[in-house]
Automatic annotation (TrEMBL):
This is Chloride channel protein. The chain crosses the membrane at residues 85-107, 160-184, 276-300, 358-377, 397-419, 498-514, 534-556. It is found in: Membrane. Belongs to the chloride channel (TC 2.A.49) family. Keywords: CBS domain, Chloride, Ion transport, Membrane, Repeat, Transmembrane, Transmembrane helix, Transport. Residues 1-57 are annotated as: Disordered. One of its GO terms (cellular component) is membrane. Its main location: membrane. It is a multi-pass membrane protein.
């Protein structure tokens, strides 16, 4: 590709020139790896068997290979009913929804169990048991506290050293487990996973992103990440987990477990797998927020690059099943009497917006965009520093422990010495039982303990259900350290999500924003702090992730208040507009930083509109004759390990006749297509798929004396009708064709239909 051309390719860079007479000494397997890949740390000559597909970003085959085998199969099946095939698809969708709910339930219960152990241990040295939410106080039918159940302590009654070190020690033990699962288990399981799933659904093959091992490390790791007190949420990892579940169910096999059930074989291709992964990602949103419509819109807006009406229905059903099953698991007795809920339950938020609020709402959205842009800019600078200096497994593990230790020390210090006692009558009676009273008198609660010594969704719940104002000092003390700790946390090697931390920060900021206006205007402006906590959470979340439609619907479904639609819409649009002027969204920035070849939705730079196909194509192409000897085919595959398409020509006229994928070429050699005609079933993926590319171990492409006398006719196996363009075709047309059809390759031909380049 021309260096002046826009980034169109999804393939990894070609490392060697492609030719019909490749050098014999060129190895098939290269040691090149992405800059931040852990595989780069493997010593040369290690006994780990790798294929070139494992070392670089690759592309997915969303377009079917239209060859003679497929056409023959269609003719044989033309009289058969498609109903069993459709039923299987719906069975997979239902299973994905149910299993995602089960995994979400396990994560929720696991976090609750780990946090209970931690806080019970800390409480023993706090001189109180008020941390157990179910035993702090009793509330009678009128919402009145029973006096004898109150336990009050002054600040001098709270010891410091013992709870300080115990809290930090337990948190560091928890986070060490999460870090070990990612650093030594599966590095792709770090972070939220939303960016990786977005790239996968865009057509980029990211190694192991939806594997079973990744699912285990992600789901188990997020238990310990959240329980360790890091400012991270479980919603992003739930989306990644749902996608991984969908991938495994859709194919009916697991390479890691060496298991192949033999079922759902007809869906073992990238095109069908993509659709199920989209449904799984939406199910993850449904599980996290109890928002089936929000899950669908999230898939449309954020992760799905290719869409259809049929996929819309399937994704919606899957994202609706998950919260339904999850709610049944969480509360089977009261299930029919409650509204939809997910892992994050803010409770029903009452109230309506006033027209007089609109200017303040828009300004809040602008501030949210600025806060989000500052968050992203700082985090990207930090990430670049990490890639330069924190570049070994040992350093990454130490960094995780350091960040967690710092976070724990700040939080426990604020709880023990930086708190303010607030009147519990300012909190709704139904929420008073969960207040934390460390060091406060009867009828008061510790603001820092109530905010930090609980799950983030519970902290948000208190902020949006507080009837009166929270002191500005308390809000500032909550916001500033948590903001910078969240920036510091995002990017370390543990599973972590950004939705909840940004919502929590925004909720506190919304409270602060409303109270500041109320105090500045001496009552001339009366903004409801609780309602603006919802608005503030949306503003900061939108400023960081830059989503609009899905965020609005998710927040509406999570709060159960549809009257917030217009203010939330104004907020997200303002946050996105302002934030986009400074940076891209956090996921897009990290995708760009990791050099993942994500294909944008449109050509944004006008200078590219004057280009043509000839200026953006790869000129070093791999050309083979239609009938090729096994020896020649092996030589080509060894010499061009990073080329995933072989251009087939008529040897007499040199005209283009078809396209053969590298995977197909390896299968032709491995399954001896020179001795028998292969069938379509020979190309279906199995749990032994990766063994075909472990060349050193299995000797598939090692030369044999008889290879010179063995020939393969590529005509039945090549795609005879791939998409082609003339070399003078405008780049804008090439881009639209490539993007909207989800192509992997476009062959560039000259006026005589001779291949001159490849775009892919």
């Amino acid at each position: 590709m021309s260096t002046s051309a826009p980034h169109l390719k999804r393939e990894s860079p070609r490392r060697s020139p492609s030719t019909t007479e490749p050098a014999e000494e060129t190895p098939l397997i290269q040691a090149d790896a992405p800059e931040d890949s852990d595989s780069a740390e493997e010593p040369v000559g290690s006994e780990r068997w790798e294929s070139s597909a494992n070392q670089t970003y690759n592309s997915l085959d969303f377009d079917e290979v239209e060859n003679e085998l497929l056409i023959e199969s269609r003719k044989r099946d033309s009289g058969r009913s498609h109903e069993p095939w459709v039923i299987k698809q719906w069975v997979i969708i239902i299973i994905i929804g149910i299993l995602t709910a089960v995994v979400a339930y396990g994560i929720d219960q696991g976090i609750a169990f780990l946090m209970k152990i931690k806080f019970e241990a800390v409480d023993k040295y706090m001189g109180t048991t008020t941390h157990n939410d179910t035993h702090i106080v009793h509330v009678d039918v009128n919402g009145t506290l029973v006096p004898e159940e109150r336990v009050a302590y002054s600040t001098t009654d709270i010891p410091f050293a013992a709870p300080f070190f115990i809290f930090i020690a337990i948190n560091m033990c928890y986070v060490a487990v999460a870090a070990a699962l990612v650093i030594f288990g599966e590095p792709v399981a770090r972070g939220s996973g939303i960016g990786e799933i977005k790239c996968y659904l865009n057509g980029v093959r990211i190694f192991r992103v939806v594997r079973f091992k990744t699912l285990v490390c992600k789901a188990v790791g997020i238990l310990f990440s959240v329980a360790s007190g890091l400012p991270c949420g479980k919603e992003g990892p739930m989306i990644h987990s749902g996608a991984a579940i969908a991938s495994g169910i859709a194919t009916g096999k697991s390479t890691k477990l060496h298991c192949d059930t033999g079922i759902f074989r007809e869906f073992r291709n990238d095109r069908h797998k993509r659709n199920f992964v989209t449904a799984g990602a939406a199910a993850g949103v449904g599980a996290a927020f109890g928002a089936p419509v929000g899950g669908l819109l999230f898939a449309v807006e954020e992760v799905g690059s290719f869409w259809s009406l049929d996929l819309t229905v399937k994704v919606f059903v899957c994202s609706a099943i998950t919260p339904w099953v999850l709610q049944l698991l969480l509360d089977p007795h009261e299930y029919a009497k409650t509204s939809i809920r997910g892992l994050i339950d803010f409770g029903k938020v009452e109230g309506e917006y006033n027209y007089s609020d609109i200017p303040f709402v828009i300004l809040l959205g602008i501030l949210g965009g600025l806060i989000g842009a500052a968050f992203i800019w700082t985090n990207i600078k930090l990430t670049k520093w990490r890639r330069k200096y924190v570049n070994t497994k040992a350093r990454r593990f130490i960094e995780v422990l350091f960040v967690n230790g710092l976070t724990s020390a700040v939080l426990i210090t604020l709880v023990l010495r930086g708190f303010t006692c607030l009147d519990e009558n300012d909190v709704l009676p139904a929420n008073r039982a969960s207040l934390k009273r460390y060091g406060c008198n009867p009828g008061e609660y510790n603001d820092m303990a109530t905010y930090f010594f609980r799950s983030m969704e519970e902290s948000i719940h208190v902020l949006i259900h507080t009837e009166t104002s929270i002191p500005i000092k308390s809000l500032i003390i909550q916001i500033i350290p948590y903001y910078f700790l969240t920036i510091l946390t995002y990017g370390i090697y543990v599973p972590s999500g950004l939705f909840l931390p940004t919502l929590a920060l925004g909720a506190s900021f919304g409270h602060l924003y409303a109270q500041t206006w109320n105090s500045m205007t001496n009552g001339a402006v009366t903004l409801d702090p609780a309602r603006f906590a919802v608005y503030g959470g949306t503003a900061v979340l939108g400023g960081v992730v830059r989503m609009t439609i899905s965020v609005v619907v998710i927040i509406m479904e999570a709060t159960g208040n549809t009257s917030f639609f217009y203010p939330l819409t104004m907020i997200t649009l303002a946050a996105k507009f302002v934030g986009d002027k400074i940076t891209h969204g956090v996921y897009e920035e990290h995708i760009h930083l990791n050099n993942i070849p994500l294909l944008d939705t449109a050509v944004e730079d006008p200078k590219y509109e004057s280009l043509c196909a000839e200026q953006v194509m790869h000129q070093n192409i791999v050309i083979v004759p239609r009938v090729v000897t096994v020896a020649h085919l092996k030589k080509i595959l060894r010499a061009t390990p990073f080329d995933n398409a072989l251009i087939v020509i008529d040897p007499e006229s040199s005209r283009f006749v078809g396209l053969l994928l590298r995977r197909s070429a390896v299968i032709l050699i491995a399954k001896q297509a020179d001795q028998r005609k292969l069938e379509l079933a020979d190309f279906v993926k199995s749990d032994k798929e990766r063994q075909l590319f472990r060349v050193k171990k299995y000797g598939i492409i090692e030369e044999d004396a008889e290879d010179v006398n063995r020939s393969i006719d590529l005509k039945p196996y090549m795609d005879q009708w791939p998409f082609t363009v003339q070399k003078a075709t405008p780049f804008t047309r090439v881009f639209r064709t490539f993007r909207e059809l989800g192509l992997r390759h476009i062959v560039v031909l000259d006026e005589l239909r001779k291949p001159v380049g490849l775009i892919g």
